[in-house]
Design goal:
The protein is α/β, with parallel strands linked by helices. It is 41% helix and 12% strand. Helix 7 crosses helix 11 and helix 8 runs antiparallel to helix 10. The relative contact order is 0.14.
């Protein structure tokens, strides 16, 4: 399958390649970068149509305070928008110094490669914050290269995820087989905000100590999730339903599973924390988006001299030499 555009989760790919078995004892960032770049050139680009756009979506790159490539674990972290909302968000996420250095090399390698190579990075935003904005102007068949479940919210008939390889694209039917519902922005966001996401440090609303839940609360939550999926409910409609329930005190309506869910949730409270408050906090984190993605998308004209140097550095084609190009330092 050839795609009109491909969106690449660069951190996701590099950590998978860098932590694979063959790299278990590999402490060379250049070697890791070489493997990732080789895969992009031989496989990922092979599934991109001629003239199609390849987007490199980065999380913020933490700075290594000691420049010994060495593997110092002293980082200067960026406080992303999501972390300002929820302190526990990715609180246990570890950064590997050699992979951070490899990521920097990958970014440099692709910076001066022409208008069809788009790089998207911001110190306050994560890779998946950019996806929705890009999908508003990219059309046709699109591949999202990531196994991050947040990206599943964008799967449609024309948009697939590449979780393993291009021979086995992850479709909306695959998501339904695993989760019992079809993916959408609203269904995936609601699911994570209610049931949590342990990989990102997002806690389920059911894990609050000393809260007494009705015995059927999880069943009611599942019904609400299914209702959202089957009726193509949007995030805006979820918010409107919640606001109507609280401001107008609508009577309980069993035929609307979403109203039923909020009606029950409204009555559960423990001191200053309630499932409702936690869900609202989770929603704010999970639905984080970049409002104006185009201002973060950059591309540069090809620079043959710099690109030749990078080819030589990464792929060891000939003896390395020192090189500088304007503000780009290698």
């Amino acid at each position: 399958m050839v795609y009109d555009s491909i969106l690449l989760d660069v951190f996701n790919l590099t950590y998978r390649k860098g932590n694979s078995r063959q790299n278990a004892t590999q402490d060379n960032p250049i070697k890791i970068a070489e493997q990732v770049i080789s895969y992009i050139e031989s496989d990922i680009k092979g599934h991109l149509k001629s003239g199609g756009n390849l987007y490199f979506l980065f999380d913020p790159l933490p700075e290594i305070l000691k420049s010994d490539m060495g593997m110092s674990k002293n980082f200067k972290y960026s406080i992303t928008t999501r972390k300002t909302i929820l302190k526990t968000y990715k609180a246990n996420r570890k950064y590997d110094p050699k992979i951070i250095e490899a990521l920097k090399l990958i970014r440099r390698y692709y910076t001066f490669r022409g208008e069809n190579i788009k790089i998207c990075i911001c110190r306050d935003l994560e890779a998946d914050d950019f996806v929705e904005g890009i999908l508003k102007f990219e059309t046709g068949k699109i591949a999202l290269y990531s196994n991050d479940s947040d990206w599943a919210r964008y799967i449609t008939d024309d948009i697939v995820m590449i979780k393993k390889d291009f021979e086995n694209p992850y479709t909306k039917e695959d998501y339904k087989n695993e989760n019992g519902i079809y993916p959408s922005i609203a269904s995936v966001t609601f699911k994570k905000s209610v049931f949590g996401d342990i990989t990102d440090g997002i806690e389920s609303i059911f894990d609050i100590d000393k809260v007494e839940y009705p015995k059927n609360i999880k069943e009611v939550s599942e019904h609400a999730l299914k209702y959202i999926s089957e009726n193509n409910i949007t995030l805006e409609e979820i918010k409107k339903t919640e606001e109507m329930l609280y401001t107008q005190l609508l009577k309980r309506k069993d035929e609307n599973a979403l109203i039923e869910f909020f009606y029950i949730l409204k009555g559960i409270q423990y001191k200053n924390e309630s499932p409702q408050n936690r869900m609202q906090m989770n929603l704010r984190v999970i639905k984080s988006r970049c409002d104006d993605v185009k201002k973060y998308i950059t591309w540069k004209e090809e620079n043959k001299e710099l690109n030749e140097f990078l080819d030589n550095l990464i792929f060891k084609k000939k003896k390395e030499k020192s090189f500088s190009f304007g503000k780009v330092k290698i």
